[in-house]
Specification:
- This protein is mainly alpha-helical.
- It has a domain of about 90 residues.
- The chain contains six helices and two strands, in the order αβααααβα.
- A two-stranded parallel ribbon has the order 1-2.
- The longest helix is centred in the middle third of the chain and has 31 residues.
- It is elongated and about 55 Å long.
- The mean pLDDT is about 90.
- This is DUF4234 domain-containing protein.
- Keywords: Membrane, Transmembrane, Transmembrane helix.
Length: about 140
């Protein structure tokens, strides 16, 4: 890709996406990193981002199953999500930050506040949907 074309790419700040994952889930933030990889035409990072999204859904499902079968053990239930978040940040997000710094330095076109606001609203709704589904599933199948 030419230098001129790369300099006009609009990218999500991966460090901010990693931090906002506390509010909107790493699943949603991984989607932003997927979009960055897509804009940069980086197939490897696109695959990694998709895998982290799937892993996030798997961790959510595992947490729901643990809440059904081990309702008293909230430490285990919350531990899966916490460890996933930590691993996701240090194994994926930090590498994305390093890759963008190597490729562009600090001077790349970033998405603005309004676009982040839209993402945060959508991501928060996704989190609420996951919480709602968790409650419905656990109350339906739990003891």
């Amino acid at each position: 890709m030419s230098e001129l074309k790369e300099s006009h790419l609009k990218l999500w700040n991966p460090n901010a996406a990693g931090c906002w994952a506390l509010l909107v889930t790493p699943i949603c933030s991984s989607y932003l990193l997927y979009k960055n990889a897509q804009n940069l035409n980086n197939q490897d990072d696109m695959t990694k981002a998709k895998n982290w999204m799937v892993a996030g859904l798997a961790v959510w499902l595992l947490s729901v199953c643990c809440a059904i079968y081990y309702p008293e053990n909230t430490g285990m239930i919350n531990g899966f999500s916490l460890w996933y978040l930590i691993l996701w940040y240090f194994l994926f997000v930090r590498k994305q930050v390093e890759n963008l710094k190597q490729q562009f330095g600090e001077s790349y076109l970033r998405y603005e506040s309004f676009e982040w606001f839209k993402f945060l609203i959508i991501g928060f709704v996704v989190r609420l949907i996951l919480i709602g589904l968790s409650i419905v599933i656990v109350s339906s199948f739990g003891s």
